[in-house]
């Protein structure tokens, strides 16, 4: 499973930060940061989700009010 985070879409509600430790609040920018992610396109960050964090990642994606977080399974199908 991997997560994609569109930082441009993020509005800084930080609900993802409460759900998954991979997200950190960047109060200077007013947006969240996805730790250990690779920027694959401008403002699009991607990283693998460890098996023990899959539920937390799903909660983070589901709580994002602007759908800036998307989860994909190993086949590339979108989960959230």
From TrEMBL:
<keyword id="KW-0408">Iron</keyword>
<keyword id="KW-0479">Metal-binding</keyword>
<dbReference type="Pfam" id="PF13459">
    <property type="entry name" value="Fer4_15"/>
</dbReference>
<protein>
    <submittedName>
        <fullName>Ferredoxin</fullName>
    </submittedName>
</protein>
<dbReference type="InterPro" id="IPR051269">
    <property type="entry name" value="Fe-S_cluster_ET"/>
</dbReference>
<keyword id="KW-0249">Electron transport</keyword>
<dbReference type="GO" id="GO:0046872">
    <property type="term" value="F:metal ion binding"/>
</dbReference>
<keyword id="KW-0411">Iron-sulfur</keyword>
<keyword id="KW-0813">Transport</keyword>
<dbReference type="GO" id="GO:0051536">
    <property type="term" value="F:iron-sulfur cluster binding"/>
</dbReference>
């Amino acid at each position: 499973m991997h997560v994609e985070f569109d930082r441009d879409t993020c509005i800084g509600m930080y609900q993802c930060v409460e759900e998954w430790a991979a997200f950190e609040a960047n109060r200077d920018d007013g947006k969240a940061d996805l730790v250990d992610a690779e920027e694959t396109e401008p403002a699009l960050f991607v990283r693998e989700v460890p098996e023990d964090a899959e539920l937390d990642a799903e909660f983070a994606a589901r709580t994002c009010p602007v759908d800036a977080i998307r989860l994909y399974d190993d086949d590339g199908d979108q989960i959230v």
